[in-house]
């Protein structure tokens, strides 16, 4: 039976915990300890997701296992879990945001590295450091350890937690726990726990650390204590902060749990933002479950956690006192499968053609959105309604005992509040009138878009026919029919296969160099089609040596991408060992030439450039048939047509480069200064690397300055991101655009773009917005929060 002792005073608790500490300190598994009985995993050992009998390694007692953890739909996490109970509760994962499919493997290589390969052959490393692993063990503490030939621990899962700590596991400063997305959904969630470098243990919503007043919703107040400080989860079940002098400086858990072998324990940052301690009897009985022992913070309800229901939603408590998120009338969930995602309105509003009679007020009793009001009035409820109704900018009025607070969309931190007289007065469209208008406009846009796309496709195909016919008739120029050969694999849409000789002639022997990049050299060429038709020919280097079929298969992905802000690929050559791509020619050069010349582009031009580039990257990430990570976003890879419309070049080429299954500094993709910090770590690369590169480039667009300028007299201005951040923190953003009257007259937009840029270059990829969100923030549709200070300077 579990023995739970309730302590009533901090002094008594501290004395008892100190006693427990000195008794048990020699038995706790600190990083240098490796004395537990274990079952070694030798070099060359492999686990298979497809093999029920060989999909995990168990600890000596079998209480814990490491391997492939099934999450449904044929997907797996590489993780650690409680293995002897029906729940199989997950406590750690190496790939929580990128599950692998059946057919994946985990291996301890003969070279002494540990990683996993997904079903597509993509390698991800758990550990590939300079010290070689000799063996690995899954310990009965739930800790996966990797040891060297002299039996010293060189890596352990206890030092890289996900959302859970186990007894004996200590959390060091600046090591972070992230909640899960939802119960049963193990993706990175919305809440974070971190023991900061100032020794303060803090809970805060993800992306809102350091943001006043909506930052931390729990803190220990221990800042200023001399480092190092550890968060200790003792074998006795006590949770506390321990100072460098081995003194308890803060009690996190007010309970002690009997630590007999009959009970499991864990402490988890749950998806609702609470740090909860759980206990469960060690029994396979499915009628048993985890019991909550303590909850941090203990003085808040679920609706007291900032942002728990996202934008425009509001929180109410269910019968278990957990958060339930609702949407106001005529609003719907952004993601119906995830009520915590927030809500969107199902009608249109705005000041253009605004008529109050088309709207009415919906009243919600005891509901409040406490932040973000732009005007406060002293009046009665009916006058409050009337004031909001007459104001086209007002989407919500909160009435609270003679005070009327007017707010614009979006709203944050909505919650049920039993304050007497509290009313939320929400402006909505009468009937479905505005919704119908929105849908009609949307249908019209779709019809126009479909017509334009179809018409463009027809014109493009006809142009190809004309080109082919002309080239066939004219001697001395590339004859397309002789270079176009049957494609035995799935045809590459709209791409012309050229002979090498024809491109050699068109480029005058590859003499006119337009530029050089990480993928190869670009030459200017001319085809005579009755008129001079200019092209750009990229001669690829380091192309993957897998033959013509694979090359054309990869090109089929690029050939199916069509967007206003992408450079159009016209054709290719894969003759012998020659690999060339033929693009439309861009008359106005690169964005770098445009930005960093002696004549500074206007502010309006720069805003449109930023939006155009963001739309192009969004298309690559989310809208094309096969999503593409560019890996080398920079001003030199953004070209301008004759109307100065930005077009992204070199997308999709990363897959055509030679690469092996390892990740080293020498094969990091991208350009110095624009490379995201995760390229230098043993973590998976995601689309967020392009967000980081865009962020650096956005700051360059704002300031018309290169990311690094060694010619600056003031050394503080050498690294652009550092200079921008310092000016932003000082409230002197105007210094970034000195002498530009147009930009100074649009300072609100400048500040918004600066904040977006700083969000994009956050060190932690999960804190960066997606490119779709970047567009919404740049356009002012979504309010941009104060960016945290944890960004990384350009490398």
TrEMBL record:
Please report the record's description of how this protein sits within the membrane: Single-pass type I membrane protein
> Which processes are annotated in GO (biological process)?
recognition of pollen
Residues in domain Protein kinase? Answer: 508-782
Q: Where is the Bulb-type lectin domain?
A: 32-159
Q: Which residues cross the membrane?
A: 451-471
Which EC number(s) does UniProt give? 2.7.11.1
Q: Where in the cell is it found?
A: Membrane
Q: What Pfam families does the annotation carry? A: B_lectin, Pkinase, S_locus_glycop
User: Any idea which positions bind ATP?
Assistant: 538
- This protein's source sits in the domain of life called Eukaryota
Alphabetic keyword roster: ATP-binding, Disulfide bond, EGF-like domain, Glycoprotein, Kinase, Lectin, Membrane, Nucleotide-binding, Receptor, Serine/threonine-protein kinase, Signal, Transferase, Transmembrane, Transmembrane helix
- EC main class here is transferase
What's an example GO cellular component term for this entry?
membrane
- The residues the entry assigns to the signal sequence are none
- Entries under Gene3D superfamilies matching the protein: Bulb-type lectin domain (2.90.10.10), Phosphorylase Kinase, domain 1 (3.30.200.20), Transferase(Phosphotransferase) domain 1 (1.10.510.10)
Cross-referenced PANTHER family, in alphabetical order? G-TYPE LECTIN S-RECEPTOR-LIKE SERINE/THREONINE-PROTEIN KINASE SD2-5, G-TYPE LECTIN S-RECEPTOR-LIKE SERINE_THREONINE-PROTEIN KINASE LECRK1
Q: Which family does it belong to?
A: Belongs to the protein kinase superfamily. Ser/Thr protein kinase family.
Q: Which protein is depicted?
A: Receptor-like serine/threonine-protein kinase
């Amino acid at each position: 039976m579990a023995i739970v002792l309730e302590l009533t005073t901090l002094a008594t608790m501290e004395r008892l915990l100190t006693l427990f500490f000195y008794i048990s300190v020699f038995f706790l598994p600190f990083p240098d300890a490796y004395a537990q009985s274990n079952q070694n995993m030798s070099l060359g050992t492999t686990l298979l997701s497809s093999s029920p009998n060989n999909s995990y390694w168990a600890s000596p007692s079998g209480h814990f296992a490491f391997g492939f953890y099934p999450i449904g739909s044929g997907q797996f996490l590489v993780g650690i879990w409680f293995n002897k109970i029906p729940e199989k509760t997950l406590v750690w994962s190496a790939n929580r945001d990128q599950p692998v499919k059946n057919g994946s493997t985990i291996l301890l290589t003969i070279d002494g590295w540990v990683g996993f390969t997904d079903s597509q052959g993509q390698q991800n490393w758990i550990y590939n450091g300079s010290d070689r692993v000799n063996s690995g063990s899954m310990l009965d503490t739930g800790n996966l350890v990797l040891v060297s030939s002299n039996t010293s621990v060189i890596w352990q899962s206890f030092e890289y937690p996900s959302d859970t700590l186990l007894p004996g596991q200590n959390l060091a400063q600046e090591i972070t726990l992230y909640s899960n997305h939802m119960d049963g959904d193990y993706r990175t969630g919305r809440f974070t726990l971190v023991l900061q470098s100032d020794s303060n243990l803090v809970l805060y919503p993800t992306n809102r650390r350091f943001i006043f007043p909506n930052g931390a919703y729990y803190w220990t107040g221990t800042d200023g204590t001399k480092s190092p400080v550890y968060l200790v989860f003792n074998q006795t079940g006590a949770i506390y902060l321990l100072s460098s002098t081995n003194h308890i400086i803060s009690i996190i858990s007010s309970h002690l749990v009997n630590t007999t072998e009959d009970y499991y324990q864990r402490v988890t940052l749950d998806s609702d933002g609470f740090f909860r301690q759980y206990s469960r009897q060690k029994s396979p009985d499915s009628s048993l479950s985890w019991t909550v022992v303590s909850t941090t913070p203990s003085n808040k309800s679920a609706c007291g956690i900032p942002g728990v229901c996202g934008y425009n939603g509001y929180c109410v408590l269910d019968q278990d006192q957990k958060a339930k998120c609702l949407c106001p009338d005529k609003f719907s969930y952004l993601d119906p499968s995830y009520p915590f995602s927030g809500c969107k309105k199902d009608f249109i509003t705005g000041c253009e053609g605004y008529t109050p009679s088309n709207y009415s007020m919906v009243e919600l009793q005891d509901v409040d959105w406490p932040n973000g009001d732009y005007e406060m009035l002293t009046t009665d409820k009916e006058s409050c309604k009337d004031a909001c109704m007459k104001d086209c900018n007002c989407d919500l009025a909160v009435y609270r005992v003679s005070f009327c607070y007017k707010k614009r969309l979006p709203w944050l931190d909505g919650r049920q509040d039993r304050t007497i007289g509290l009313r939320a007065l929400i402006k909505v469209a009468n009937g479905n009138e505005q919704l119908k208008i929105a849908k009609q406009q949307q249908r019209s846009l779709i019809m126009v878009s479909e017509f334009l796309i179809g018409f463009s496709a027809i014109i493009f195909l006809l142009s190809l026919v004309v080109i082919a016919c002309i080239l066939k008739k004219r001697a001395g120029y590339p004859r397309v029919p002789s270079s176009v050969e049957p494609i035995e694999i799935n045809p590459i849409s709209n791409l012309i296969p050229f002979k090498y000789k024809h491109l050699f002639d068109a480029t005058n022997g590859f003499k006119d160099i337009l530029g050089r990049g990480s993928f190869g050299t670009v030459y200017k060429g001319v085809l005579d089609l009755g008129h001079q038709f200019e092209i750009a020919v990229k001669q690829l280097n380091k192309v993957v040596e897998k033959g013509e079929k694979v090359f054309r298969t990869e090109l089929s992905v690029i050939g199916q991408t069509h967007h206003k802000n992408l450079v159009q690929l016209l054709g290719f050559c894969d003759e012998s060992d020659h690999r060339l791509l033929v693009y439309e020619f861009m008359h106005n050069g690169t964005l770098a030439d445009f930005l960093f010349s002696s004549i500074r582009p206007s502010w309006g031009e720069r805003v449109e450039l930023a939006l155009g580039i963001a739309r192009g990257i969004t298309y690559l990430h989310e809208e094309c048939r096969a999503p593409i990570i560019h890996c080398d976003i920079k001003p030199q890879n953004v070209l301008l047509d004759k109307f100065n419309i930005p077009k992204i070049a070199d997308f999709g080429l990363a897959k055509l480069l030679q690469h092996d299954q390892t990740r080293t500094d020498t094969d990091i993709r991208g350009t110095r200064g624009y490379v995201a910090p995760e390229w230098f770590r043993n973590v998976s690369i995601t689309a967020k690397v392009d967000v980081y590169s865009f962020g650096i480039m956005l700051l360059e667009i704002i300031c018309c300055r290169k990311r690094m300028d060694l010619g600056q007299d003031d050394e503080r201005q050498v690294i652009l991101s550092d200079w921008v951040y310092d000016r932003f923190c000082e409230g002197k953003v105007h210094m970034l655009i000195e002498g530009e009257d147009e930009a100074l007259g649009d300072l609100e937009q400048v500040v918004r773009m600066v904040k977006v840029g700083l969000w994009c270059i956050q060190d932690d990829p999960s804190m960066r917005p997606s490119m779709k969100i970047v567009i919404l923030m740049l356009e002012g549709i979504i309010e941009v929060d104060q960016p945290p200070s944890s960004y990384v300077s350009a490398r």
